[in-house]
Amino acid sequence: xxxxxxxxxxxxxxxxxxxxxxxxxxxxxxxxxxxxxxxxxxxxxxxxxxxxxxxxxxxxxxxxxxxxxxxxxxxxxxxxxxxxxxxxxxxxxxxxxxxxxxxxxxxxxxxxxxxxxxxxxxxxxxxxxxxxxxxxxxxxxxxxxxx
Length: 147
Hints:
Blueprint (H helix, E strand, L loop, with lengths): L1 H7 L1 H6 L2 E3 L4 E3 L3 E2 L2 E6 L2 E4 H10 L7 E4 L12 E4 L1 H10 L22 E6 L2 E6 H16 L1
Antiparallel strand pairs: 1-2, 3-4, 4-5, 6-7, 8-9
């Protein structure tokens, strides 16, 4: 009987797991990759998407629910906005919180100084790369081609 009411009352299950503070309304339930995890409409979804649908309506296909507050646990509707994947990544870059934007060394440990870094555009995004690693990859590619 306990399981039956939980399946039929997603609103009740949602609100008992939300801590409404002055700023963010933080999800207090289970997390998956930092985001609130919530079962509704016969599937496991995210709490912030449920919050969007609850307060604003259906999410159009191809759009994501993004956070203006950069808090993945937040479900407060005025901290959420709809955007494409590209919009979300650009927002991340603009705010300087992309995991690779503040790297000081490449994966092989070379310092990413202005002399050792070159920039290129890939799929509409400006990327940084280590010159030393790039030269080594190119030399290896040429050696394989010759052999």
